[in-house]
Design goal:
Blueprint: E1 4-7, E2 9-12, E3 15-22, H1 40-66, H2 73-85, H3 89-102, H4 106-123, H5 127-148, E4 162-166, H6 171-176, E5 182-187, H7 195-203, E6 207-209, E7 223-227, E8 232-235, H8 239-261, E9 276-281, H9 286-292, E10 298-302, H10 316-330, E11 335-338, H11 364-370, H12 372-385, E12 390-395, H13 401-418, E13 425-432, H14 435-439, H15 441-445, E14 450-453, H16 455-462, H17 481-497, E15 501-503, H18 514-520, E16 524-527, H19 532-541, H20 544-556, H21 560-574
Parallel strand pairs: 3-4, 4-5, 5-6, 9-10, 9-16, 10-11, 11-12, 12-13, 13-14, 14-15
Antiparallel strand pairs: 1-8, 2-6, 3-7, 7-8
Helix pairs in contact: 1-2, 1-5, 2-5, 3-4, 4-5, 8-19, 10-12, 11-12, 12-13, 18-20, 20-21
The structure holds phosphoenolpyruvate and magnesium ion.
Length: 582
């Protein structure tokens, strides 16, 4: 079969060449367990809860469809049929009986029952009943996933190192790739700043996302090249192409090694301005990796990853232990803990969130203020975890002073309830990632100890581009004059109030943007650990005076294209071609 080249979005740099494994969405691993008599009742309750949850999901999908325009309304009838199936005696009562009669767990009983019903329908031999068999599968799988507590499907972790091809990977599935021998991945949906891409960057896995109709062009076993630096996927490459990409992969690895070797050098411009480079982490295990790459501390610990893909919420004790370990691992460097940013594409299964929330929905501190018990548990864990140090805590998605005061008051309440078990110093920061926060940055600056600019969301909300939606991803640009002005306003507000300001969004590690960030006056940047050596090297090639002049010019320019061209020309002169590999 012939070679096919498909363009997508470069989500995580590097080149991977290997055999494709297409993720089979239907595949769910079924735990099989024998029960004793006293386990029957809780097991039946578990099944009923999963059925209730499935009903709730189908109801909300039905309402969503019904509210759309006419042509889609028919689909709500299909969902209606699925809802009725959840009341079906054969399926529900049949599974309950199997649990008791055979003394087996709910998942095992349910799968047996689904197979049995499908067989009955198939034996009727009519097309209509064949379709009903598919419905049983669909509904049964939904209940099964709810039983298993999976928002996501499981990637089969067996076998040889491979390249994963999927329609989509959730951030949680991406984290599973670390256990699977995965060389790279490519997906049909996703964007550069989606949390899936962020995870790929953190794990150092080359990735391309947003490649239209990819899975249908690939068979399991095909050779595939994933060029995560340029956003290209090559399916069934010929020998010449494989040789060409193998040498590019080698050049990339050599560049990485060279950059890594210089990790002890300071991030100082040619005219002597020094920057602090910090790491963003999602898991405690990345703390060591951050030090290894020469991070001076953690500028963003995305604590929400602790809540994902598990049945129970993390307890105060568990969180306290984890936070304390990260602090101790990094000491004497500082760790900035961001309170959980749950919602949107990071769904807390235990708190009832299963369907993706809109980016404008119940997310981050909005979710925390609505679920105060969960939020306060985390605040206490953070206070206790840092009791022998200074706690650096920051809040995501702050829209204004009123909201900030509410979360600060909850933090105070948590501290009062803990009595002596609190750190001697707590430094409270605010993420600046909403346009509203930019407009009141001067006011926010008076109420906090530091600012951290979250550009992933700032761009999303300023330009009205859903960061998870690949159809508008081409509009997502950090070079937009409004973005530069927003950052400029934030830095000025922080300087005026005499508080530190850093950047922890994806802009901080975009090679081309480094001169602009230096020129805007940022002196602290936080990024995926693996990006630190590259950013350090760029800083060492540029002069802050030139960067300031370029930035002044950029702030006068009307379009992203002009600004990008200006900076590209400068980077070509100063830094050279190496960085086109990144
Ligand atoms: C951001 O929005 O830029 C940010 C750093 O936070 P997150 O990517 O986790 O939303
Ligand atoms: Mg954010």
């Amino acid at each position: 079969m012939r070679t096919v080249r498909r363009r997508g979005i470069a989500a995580s740099p590097g080149i991977a060449i290997g055999t494709a494994r297409v993720v089979d969405r239907q595949k769910i691993k079924i735990p099989k367990m024998r029960l004793s008599a006293e386990d029957i009742e809780p097991e039946v309750n578990r099944l009923m809860t999963a059925i209730d949850e499935s009903r709730r999901q189908l109801e909300s999908a039905k309402t969503a469809i019904f509210n759309t325009r006419e042509p889609h309304r028919d689909h709500s009838l299909i969902l209606e049929a699925h809802l009725l199936m959840l009341e079906d005696e054969l399926l529900v009562k049949g599974t309950v009986s199997l649990i008791g009669d055979e003394l087996i767990n709910a998942e095992w009983a349910l799968v047996q029952k689904i197979d049995e019903i499908k067989q009955i329908l198939a034996d009727l031999g009519d097309d209509y009943f064949k379709e009903r068999a598919q419905d049983v599968d669909f509904v049964g799988n939904r209940v099964l996933r709810n039983l298993l507590g999976h928002v996501t499907e499981i990637i089969d972790a067996q076998g040889e190192p491979c390249i994963i091809i999927a329609e989509n990977l959730s951030p949680v599935e991406t984290t599973q790739l670390i256990e699977t021998p995965v060389l790279g991945f490519a997906t049909e949906v996703g964007t550069r700043t989606s949390h899936t891409a962020i995870m790929a960057q953190a794990l150092g896995i080359p990735a391309v996302v947003g490649v239209e109709r990819l899975a249908e062009r690939i068979k399991a076993g095909d050779t595939v090249i994933v060029d995560g630096s340029h956003g290209e996927v090559i399916i069934r490459p010929d020998d010449e192409t494989i040789d060409d990409y193998s040498s590019q992969a080698t050049a990339y690895e050599e560049l990485e090694k060279r950059l890594y070797a210089s990790r002890e050098e300071p991030a100082v411009t040619t005219d002597g301005v020094e920057l602090s480079l910090l790491a963003n982490i999602e898991f405690p295990g990345e703390a060591v990796m951050a030090i290894d790459y020469g991070a001076e501390g953690i500028g963003l610990y995305r604590t929400e990853f602790l809540y994902l893909d598990r049945r129970e919420l993390p307890t105060e004790e568990e969180q306290c232990r984890i936070y304390n370990t990260v602090i101790k691992t990094l000491a004497p460097r500082t760790v900035v803990f961001r309170t959980f940013d749950l919602g949107a594409d990071k769904l807390p299964t235990q708190a009832g969130g299963r369907n993706a929330e809109s980016a404008l929905g119940l997310r981050a501190i909005r979710f925390g203020l609505k679920n105060r018990t969960i939020f306060k548990t985390q605040l206490k864990a953070l206070l206790r975890g840092a009791r022998d140090a200074t706690l650096h805590i920051m809040f995501p998605m702050i829209s204004g002073v009123g909201e900030l005061r509410q979360v600060k008051s909850l933090l105070n309440q948590a501290a009062q309830e803990l009595g002596d078990e609190v750190p001697s110093e707590v430094r409270v920061g605010c993420m600046i990632e909403l346009p509203s926060a930019i407009f009141v940055a001067d006011m926010l600056a008076k109420e906090v100890d530091f600012f951290s600019i979250g550009t992933n969301d700032l761009i999303q909300y300023s330009l009205a581009i859903d960061r998870g939606n690949d159809s508008v991803a081409y509009l997502y640009t950090p070079f937009h004059p409004s973005v530069l002005r927003a950052i400029d306003t934030t830095i000025k507000a922080a300087n005026h109030a005499n508080i530190p300001v850093s950047m922890c969004g994806g802009m901080a590690s975009e090679p081309l943007l480094v001169p602009l960030l230096v020129g805007l006056g940022l002196r602290t940047l936080s990024m995926a650990p693996g990006s630190i050596p590259m950013v350090r090297s760029i800083i060492r090639h540029i002069s802050s005076e030139e960067a300031e002049a370029l930035t002044r010019q950029s702030l006068e320019m009307a379009t992203a294209t002009e600004i990008e061209r200006l900076i590209s020309d400068y980077m070509d002169q100063k830094v050279g071609l190496d960085f086109q590999l990144l």
